[in-house]
Amino acid sequence: MRKLIWILIPLLIVVAVWSFWPRQKPGLVFYSAVSYGPMLAQAFTKESGIPVRVVEMSTGALLARVSAQGNNPQWDVAWFDGASAAAGLQRAHLVASGIVPRDIPWTDLGKSLIPADGAWIPTGYTLAGVFLHPAKRPAPATWDDLLQARWRGRFAMNNPAISGPTYPQVAGWLYSHGGWPAGQSFLLALKANGMQVYPKNSNTIHALSQGEVDLAIVQSSAAYALAAEQPGRWAVSIPKSAVLLPRVMVFADHLSAKQRRDAADFARFMLSPKAQELAMRKGAPDGYYWPITRTAPTADPGMASTQSLPLINLDPAFWGARESAINAWFSSHILGQ
Amino acid sequence: MATAREWVPAVGAAHAGEASDGAAALLEVQALHLRLGRKTILRGIDLRLNPGEVVLLIGPSGSGKSSLLRAIAGLEPLEKGRIRLQGDLLDDGRGTALSPEQRRMAMVFQEHALWPHLTVEENVQLVIPGRSGREKTRALLERMGIAQLAKRRPHEISGGQRQRVGLARALAVAPSLMLMDEPLSSLDVELREQLRLEIRRWLRELGIGALIVSHDPDDLWRLADRVVVLADGRVVQDGSPQNLYDHPQLPWIARFTGAQGPFPARWEDGMLDFAGQGLKHPGFGGASGSGWLFIRPERVEIRGEAQRGLAAVLRHCAFERGHYRSYWELPGLSDTLVALSSSAPPAHARLWVDPQQLFFFPRSSQE
Amino acid sequence: MRRYRGILRTLPVWLIILIFFVYPLGRFLLLPWFPHWAPESLGAASWPSDGWAALRNSVVLAIAAAGLAAALGTFWAWAMERRRSAWHPWSEAVLWLIFLMPSYLLTTGWEILFAAPILRHGFLHDGFYSPVGIIVLLAAKALPFAIFVVRPLWAALGHELTEAMRIFAVRPGRAVRVFLRLAIPVASAATVVSFIESVQEFGIPATLGAHLHLPILTYSIYAALSTSPLNFVGASRLALLLVVLAFSGALVQIALQRRFGAVLVHAQVRHRLPARPKRSEALVIAAMNLVVGVLVLVLPMLAIVRSAFQGGVSALRMADWDPVLHSLGFALLAASLAILLAWLFARSLVSGGVGGRAMDVFSMGNMAVPGLVLGAAYIMAFNLPGFSLYGGSLLLILAYTAATAPMLTRLLQAPMAQLDRSLGDAARIHGVSAWVRWLDIDAALLSRPLVRGWLLAFGTVMFELPVSELLYPAGKTPLGVAVLALNNGEHFAAAARLALGGLASVALVTVVVLVLLRFALPDYRMAVTQ
């Protein structure tokens, strides 16, 4: 038995050391829910020499981690879709304020997305919900068209409680139909017309590809990505009053001065034309976004132009504060649980 | 291989507890109480062992013999009492106690308790501290005549050999006191005798005192210097084997030492009413009444019909190792009475028993 | 004084239990009454919106799965105990493999199959992607447990009972009824065990349940803790429900055993050679073995293997094997810690007395607490101001250890109880020091159960899912989490590759450990007394 132990103990020590050894202090710990985050982080490190350790997660999981870590943050920079979520973090004092870099050539839309206290940096936007459907089939023009009989039971969306970017879509519906709680009637009408709800983008798209539904309401980037993957099979239509979903970057509170500087450089790099070019060309699926800086390349030609479309830009603070109540109402009244 | 040797057994002291030459006791147990769970197993045990003395611990099942051994070894905590070894306090019954590892004792177990995954050599070597363990082990195994088993494992050797190894291991720690829990009971009769001799020899040679639990009457005659009888958690007799033979204090002891019985009898005014006949008997110091009578077969004399004695009819007779064992029917007795003779007995006879060799226990005594 | 010394010696064990089990679970499960114990969540609702639906679905699905598993399992166990069949070795192997296989692998294999063009449409596909599919999968996972519980019951039922029926020429109708009356308590035990297993199952709801947007208790708990806004109190309420469900099941099981045990006491167990099966029985046995083996093991595994090699060897070389390596490291450490802890616990368990009984209650009670709840409790418990373990590898390993130690403790119970007490006594009386005793005697004599327990813990942690999902350190994705993420994104080939990598690692480690064991410990047998 001793022989076995003399072999095992050193082995375990080696494994423990390997497992727990603190890697060389990275310059920045970067939580990314954006698909091209790691790629850009690598490019940033190559250019600036500042090491970045990237951790990829879905938006929901990222937010959950950040919340759970509370005042012991193990991250420096986080990047995800959804200003209301960022507002929530800011309300819980988990992010630093005044982080928006100066001298960025914002578009007018971009400027409107910058929060008053500078608690997050907008870096682009997608649309919370667009229509994804088989290429040959038509799509509704407005949200209200979903109440027509032809769409009965044939359209699907994600569950806002589980899918991060979906809540702003729900909020947008409420906003454009009387606010909260008046807008509930619209959602109830959607339900009455047989709306299907799946947990996440992947599930909704799966249902669409299986033919269970003819129309999926998903985030614009996911829709464009799928359409590009399977050319000719799918089409993307943007309804009137689509909801703007800013892509935001936040910094952890209590960063050291050096970390703050590095993070600022990081943000600047992400907004640079070079980085955005890289993101749009090679950063599917999230690369299908619309930029908000004047020097950025134009969005992918396959994407519709949003200049002429009326977009809803929700107040993050207002809608962010009501997220849990609205999600709860959604689950009990729409999902029937 | 150890040869059987004759030796003169040291006759134990006539009375318990007296050292043969005034030397200090090896083991002293005073007023020991032991409880296991909710049950009190041992009550007020007093026991003394002198250096080099071999004491046998006997008693009916459940009398607490093994528990006493475990308590002395330190495997069970005392409720009350004291244990001393060579004057050193081992346990004061109040929480201060030496752990078993510190007690300088050794134990031989009924099922040998050899570690099955270790060789014979390793089994013995494990208990020898220090670097010289290997040599000491070899020397010991040689001395005991089992050196050829050194590399074998317990399941590869016979029961007798295992017990020898158990003995070797016990001797290897050079104990002051040897404890043995029915060391021979799992062996067959022939092996038992062999091992008995070896144990006796080693104990004598090394001058180690021993406390041995046993169920075998042969151990009483051939191994013990002194015998302590436990019944119901108490010491009921403590004396030499002869003392037990001549004056058994309990029916159980009478039977254990070879007496036959119990036969129903009645004692009144100096007369013992047995098998429908009266026998004169000196007093028992108790009131008249009925009770149980025990008789030793070797003390039953077969006399002619005309002589005095109990009228008896021969039921059955068997030749056994050079003498005749006869079974006699007596009026009023459901069981037969056994007698031993050197020649074949007649069909009718008178049986005579020396009143001094009759043991009567009133009905109230423990059975 | 002596008594206190005894208590002092067992103090470390109870301290460990207090710190790593009682405190985290207590703090988490009492949240509904003490919500301020939770870290500031971002204004979450206290009752998860889909709570009641999740409860209803979980119970219904678990009951249906339990019924299916019990029906099949009762008959299968009867066949294994009462009939001689060449299928038995295959049965043993199949049941063991099902027991060991992570449920999400099973699901992934079938999802790969149903993604194939021929199967993509049709009623089989629809059946799979429906509650029926979940029920069948749950039943498959519960089957080994049901059979494990039921076999000894069949073994103990004396053959005389059935033989008497035949000798007295009882009419078939009545015979069936009498047989059923015997079988019902047995089947009830199987049902209850299957129910408990099914209600605690996480892998299947996390894969299939999510596709069906069917709220299930375990997945809802996970969702409440891994999306924003975090809902600790809500998760706690759901977890309480889950624990109560499992606990009730356990109580029913104990009651059944007590009632049924009386029947067994009167039966004299005489071991007779089982009879050969009748023609009809043989057909059913063969069908059962084939169908279950192929459907539950062979097909999904083939699908996974084929999918894994889809890109050819280059795809294998380019694949990201990091999750496998991470899990390997975690599993090696956690399994070692867990087996040591279990050994400590088992000593307490076997030594009897008050401590032993308390340990018995503790290890049994832990069976009602699924790893998911323990993981959830650990998020909060060790995330204190100034001392935070959350997000680190250490906490994950501690959670793995805590999740597997109770099961290992019960596994070690029988071998330790069978250890001859006199072997330890002999060591103590002859002055062998405690360390030498532990190493050279206790550990050596227990080496086989200890190593088997270690291997079981290793395999379990390697593929573990719920605790991993909740506690994995950012950047060190464990195998289960990675496979699940790939599965949800329908990247089946990548998921299959990782799964295969994990299986290969487990196989390799198992072989290495068993070889080491052989080398370190020679073969020996306990000596038989003459």
UniProtKB/TrEMBL annotation, chain A:
<dbReference type="Pfam" id="PF13416">
    <property type="entry name" value="SBP_bac_8"/>
</dbReference>
<dbReference type="InterPro" id="IPR006059">
    <property type="entry name" value="SBP"/>
</dbReference>
<keyword id="KW-0732">Signal</keyword>
<protein>
    <submittedName>
        <fullName>ABC-type Fe3+ transport system periplasmic component-like protein</fullName>
    </submittedName>
</protein>
UniProtKB/TrEMBL annotation, chain B:
<dbReference type="InterPro" id="IPR003593">
    <property type="entry name" value="AAA+_ATPase"/>
</dbReference>
<dbReference type="InterPro" id="IPR017871">
    <property type="entry name" value="ABC_transporter-like_CS"/>
</dbReference>
<keyword id="KW-0472">Membrane</keyword>
<dbReference type="Pfam" id="PF00005">
    <property type="entry name" value="ABC_tran"/>
</dbReference>
<keyword id="KW-0813">Transport</keyword>
<keyword id="KW-1003">Cell membrane</keyword>
<dbReference type="GO" id="GO:0005524">
    <property type="term" value="F:ATP binding"/>
</dbReference>
<dbReference type="GO" id="GO:0015408">
    <property type="term" value="F:ABC-type ferric iron transporter activity"/>
</dbReference>
<keyword id="KW-0547">Nucleotide-binding</keyword>
<protein>
    <submittedName>
        <fullName>Ferric iron ABC transporter, ATP-binding protein</fullName>
    </submittedName>
</protein>
<keyword id="KW-0067">ATP-binding</keyword>
<dbReference type="InterPro" id="IPR050093">
    <property type="entry name" value="ABC_SmlMolc_Importer"/>
</dbReference>
<keyword id="KW-0410">Iron transport</keyword>
<dbReference type="GO" id="GO:0016887">
    <property type="term" value="F:ATP hydrolysis activity"/>
</dbReference>
<keyword id="KW-0408">Iron</keyword>
From TrEMBL, chain C:
<feature type="transmembrane region" description="Helical">
    <location>
        <begin position="454"/>
        <end position="474"/>
    </location>
</feature>
<keyword id="KW-0813">Transport</keyword>
<dbReference type="GO" id="GO:0005886">
    <property type="term" value="C:plasma membrane"/>
</dbReference>
<feature type="transmembrane region" description="Helical">
    <location>
        <begin position="12"/>
        <end position="34"/>
    </location>
</feature>
<feature type="transmembrane region" description="Helical">
    <location>
        <begin position="238"/>
        <end position="256"/>
    </location>
</feature>
<dbReference type="InterPro" id="IPR035906">
    <property type="entry name" value="MetI-like_sf"/>
</dbReference>
<dbReference type="InterPro" id="IPR000515">
    <property type="entry name" value="MetI-like"/>
</dbReference>
<feature type="transmembrane region" description="Helical">
    <location>
        <begin position="324"/>
        <end position="346"/>
    </location>
</feature>
<feature type="transmembrane region" description="Helical">
    <location>
        <begin position="178"/>
        <end position="196"/>
    </location>
</feature>
<keyword id="KW-0812">Transmembrane</keyword>
<comment type="similarity">
    <text>Belongs to the binding-protein-dependent transport system permease family.</text>
</comment>
<feature type="transmembrane region" description="Helical">
    <location>
        <begin position="93"/>
        <end position="116"/>
    </location>
</feature>
<feature type="transmembrane region" description="Helical">
    <location>
        <begin position="128"/>
        <end position="157"/>
    </location>
</feature>
<feature type="transmembrane region" description="Helical">
    <location>
        <begin position="54"/>
        <end position="81"/>
    </location>
</feature>
<keyword id="KW-1133">Transmembrane helix</keyword>
